[in-house]
């Protein structure tokens, strides 16, 4: 806890006011509306409204499709987080190893971060469509009957790959930064002790990267949960069957396409609770790290 | 950045060659889709429609880019691409700067002052860390209508400032500022404003840069909200314009111009990341310390 | 209001419209070349008179446009005209009070609405059972069959006589694959719209009870033997690799434009891309099942129509009426039809196009009209309607995909689709 502070009483409120105002208007008000709608059954235009209590929640939670979406979400998020972080860490370490061209590699590596999800989705469709995709063709030649339109595993692979691709840059930058923050003296000491490079990576570097890794784990999980919506929407639309329908995609599909407002709102509320839990978890962790870090 | 000094991780000889191999492979995989758009933007529509696409630039580059810039693309309502790029830049800048301003102010209040309900305020803001626009679209739209902000730049910008990520990052950074600094400043008779201006702001610059990059790109790539809140072609962003041109269903699509517009939609944010990457990484290194 | 004016004055360089004109907002989902057509129609209408200004606004895909309209309606700022896709028709019809029937708007605006001047198959779909037109058909299309003449010749098929029945299509598709003329014989967009809903009308077999939902709450009958037979044939062809599945909506068109597939069933509105791709193509009418009595019956329109929102001023409605009246004029309809590939709405426009000799050079454009108006519609062929049609299509797509992936046979897929669909219908209609 900070010992020295400014004594003003009114000033902090003035400083907080804009953020609080925006948060209340654009977060709490819509969230309250979602809560309200989650206990109503309503037509799309809001012309007929009935109060149904928790019926929407019961219906959503008892729906096998929702449980399926939950399962898909867990698998999808785990895969995306694991690969996006694993590949980025691997490449960041390689980038540390090279001397010439480090800046060049890094510059090229961060491009995808700047690509809008709407564009990324279109691109992936163009590249991997089973019949005309530029990259689907070599897959076919290699004897893989690539068909994400009907094969759920292929579809999952495709959306995971697209989502991972989009996130590698961000993770890469953080890992590069994390690696550079590790004191050189520690590594040099390890080298004198005769530890092999591989050994010193796992025993010294990786533990020291833990804060970065954990931060990225939360960021990547949230990314996989929410920000991949655009990619899934463009690439598979949740199919084949429901094999790539995540929780957020289902909120969108039920509310936005099928116009079942109550169900969609109930799902939003559940999602909000999940996010708040995740956030609180992250907060506690970061708080501890600041104290000891 | 220590690009030329030897990292203790750095091997010699074969090990380094292997590292180069992995980096090249990584770069090819990661940058290929962006390259692909560029290639597609230099071919004719019929080449694009009859894949697989060639891997080298085609002969139509000048024609495609010329048409996109001079010919006024009909689908986007006769608005020039410059106008769209200008709008998008303004929105992305507005979001980035707005977010930095309000989140720095609130993080400053939370870290350097003591007042009742301080932690309650922090939590109130903090919980909003991640809430996608999709989930809150209808009520947010109503608020914008009531405030008369439909089809305006504030309407495009304000709702997207409402997230706590930047506040959190600034708070984390401010907490690493040693107490001694503040004590010394107060002994010198510095008030909150002078402390901020003379000490905190210079120290925060790299963080500001990192957050600027993140938020600029966030603002640049928005789609659903700008679509809802704009009614006139003159207010569109480049991503919306792109969507207007593409029709996967019934109508024919000028794919060559779509690809040119995609390149233009990708290029500015890439430039921002690339030009600011040094600051960006430095900012992160300092936050992560 | 004051702030708004300030912002606009300060930040936006808006072209100023003349003071006395009434502005009419028209939200639409037309992208690509069709978006240009929308802009041209609005510009021409605005130039044709000085009282009203129609202002078209692109609002994304069909679902995005509908949602933007709903959000705006709930915020009290609904547009005057909104374009809603065919599957949203049920939703709009249920929203009494939110919309104003087009027939009413036209009559109040001083224009006579004469049903007989319109193409019955199209207008019927957007009317009440009593025949009052609720929305104005803007872009209507109907599925047709496209085939690649080069591939046909290569496979030893008659490129001037495309197959007429599904059985013939299957034979031709197998021949294309076996002869090596192409790697895929047949593909299709929209299995729901083309192989389920249009299949019902074209083969005069019910899609659901209550006149396919037009007369009341429907109960799906898509698991009847004719569908089972048809889908089992599709599944078998998929297994042989003769039929290639392209996706839930229009994606399969690319399998055809890339020259991979020899035959494609797709909306008549999809012609543009096929022309652009430079394929030597031919168009035939949608195949039918020769074992179905009465087939071919007639096809039904897909596409979208323009709805007028409720609660606007009389002046606005007068403007909307004037605009719709302008839209139905023969030269406008003829232009729209020839430019966009969508069907004309009025008989007069059809006759005028025919007289101009357009169909001699573009016979493909007449195929969907002939299909749609060849016979007076029966109870099975007026179209399908359900308040939750998008959801029903989702369910069908999921079951069809499982079937095509070889996880279940056609009978199971259709039974599941019908049962799950009927449960969803009960939920949607509140019983």
UniProtKB/TrEMBL annotation, chain A:
Source domain of life: Bacteria
Cellular compartment(s): Cell inner membrane; Cell membrane
One of the Pfam families matching this protein, by short name: BPD_transp_1
Keyword annotations from UniProtKB, A to Z: Cell inner membrane, Cell membrane, Membrane, Transmembrane, Transmembrane helix, Transport
TM spans (from-to): 12-31, 69-92, 104-127, 155-179, 200-226, 265-286
Gene Ontology CC: plasma membrane
Acetylation among keywords: no
Membrane topology: Multi-pass membrane protein
Biological-process GO terms, alphabetical: transmembrane transport
Residue intervals of the ABC transmembrane type-1 domain: 70-282
Function as written in the Swiss-Prot or TrEMBL entry: Part of the ABC transporter complex UgpBAEC involved in sn-glycerol-3-phosphate (G3P) import. Probably responsible for the translocation of the substrate across the membrane.
Family: Belongs to the binding-protein-dependent transport system permease family.
Record text on subunit structure and interactions: The complex is composed of two ATP-binding proteins (UgpC), two transmembrane proteins (UgpA and UgpE) and a solute-binding protein (UgpB).
Name used for this protein in its record: sn-glycerol-3-phosphate transport system permease protein UgpA
Organism of this sequence: Paracoccus laeviglucosivorans
UniProtKB/TrEMBL annotation, chain B:
Domain ABC transmembrane type-1, first and last residues per copy: 85-276
Keywords: Cell inner membrane, Cell membrane, Membrane, Transmembrane, Transmembrane helix, Transport
GO cellular component, one term: plasma membrane
Main location as per UniProt: membrane
Membrane topology classification: Multi-pass membrane protein
PROSITE patterns from the UniProt entry: ABC_TM1
Cell compartment(s), UniProt: Cell inner membrane; Cell membrane
TM region positions: 21-39, 90-113, 120-137, 157-178, 199-218, 255-276
Cell inner membrane as UniProt keyword: yes
InterPro entries: MetI-like (IPR000515), MetI-like_sf (IPR035906)
Pfam families named in the record: BPD_transp_1
Gene3D superfamilies reported for this sequence: MetI-like (1.10.3720.10)
GO BP annotations, alphabetical order: transmembrane transport
Protein family (similarity comment): Belongs to the binding-protein-dependent transport system permease family.
Assembly behavior: The complex is composed of two ATP-binding proteins (UgpC), two transmembrane proteins (UgpA and UgpE) and a solute-binding protein (UgpB).
NCBIfam families: PRK10973.1
Role: Part of the ABC transporter complex UgpBAEC involved in sn-glycerol-3-phosphate (G3P) import. Probably responsible for the translocation of the substrate across the membrane.
Protein name, per record: sn-glycerol-3-phosphate transport system permease protein UgpE
Source organism (scientific name): Paracoccus laeviglucosivorans
Name of the coding gene: ugpE
UniProtKB/TrEMBL annotation, chain C:
Quaternary assembly: The complex is composed of two ATP-binding proteins (UgpC), two transmembrane proteins (UgpA and UgpE) and a solute-binding protein (UgpB).
Domain of life from the UniProt record: Bacteria
Family: Belongs to the bacterial solute-binding protein 1 family.
Keyword Hydrolase among UniProt keywords: no
Alphabetical list of Gene3D superfamilies matching this protein: Periplasmic binding protein-like II
Protein known as: sn-glycerol-3-phosphate-binding periplasmic protein UgpB
InterPro entries per UniProt: Bact_solute-bd_prot1, SBP
Keyword Signal carried by entry: yes
Keyword terms of this UniProt record: Signal, Transport
Primary location group: periplasm
SUPFAM superfamilies, sorted: Periplasmic binding protein-like II
Subcellular location: Periplasm
Task of the protein: Part of the ABC transporter complex UgpBAEC involved in sn-glycerol-3-phosphate (G3P) import. Binds G3P.
CC annotations in GO: periplasmic space
Position of the signal peptide: 1-20
